[in-house]
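Table S2 (continued). Query chain:
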Amino acid sequence: MTGLTKKNRVCLFEAYLDELFENPKCELYYEKDYQLLIAVVLSAQTTDKRVNQVTRILWKKYPSLDSLSQASIDEIASILVPIGTYQKKAVFVSKIAKVLLTNFGGKVPNDPMLLQALPGVGRKTSNVVLSNLFDYPAIAVDTHVERVSKRLRFVLLKDDVLTIEKKLEKLYDRSVWAKRHHQMVLFGRYHCKAIKPDCEHCKIRNICSFK
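Corresponding output:
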């Protein structure tokens, strides 16, 4: 590691992220706003790739929010089996569909408090949905963002996800919060992996604490 200040390390990292992922996008498959919300809920403790495999089936079988709301939990669960905890997630899907139709006219609310009141929706899910659907300035801290932040010493090893979110918000300009979130997710997913990270080809390995 070098003697660079945190500000300098952040600038180096931002430049590298822009080089690697100039226009980062969410990798979850969706065509409608509620589909993204549900996909993010389903992504807990699994991969986007696996979620995309089941949601393509789910959206084809239930092409509207109304048809999804009328599906039985067992029918939904049978499609979600590959992503794990499928029974619980099927309940979330069913309830979200019903609540969106009943309380929000079938639209995903553009409000963090209303979103987090939905079944299975926490702060991270809310931030992902708001930033993607409404260009809302937010940094969602998932396992990738947390890992990268700690390896680069932007946060402390003991910090929880909320503390990490607040610290990252101070490091980055508000106008790029959503972009940096996506970039950090992709960086952690494809480069700074939990197991066998690609340190050999990483241009910022000199500012990383990972050994």
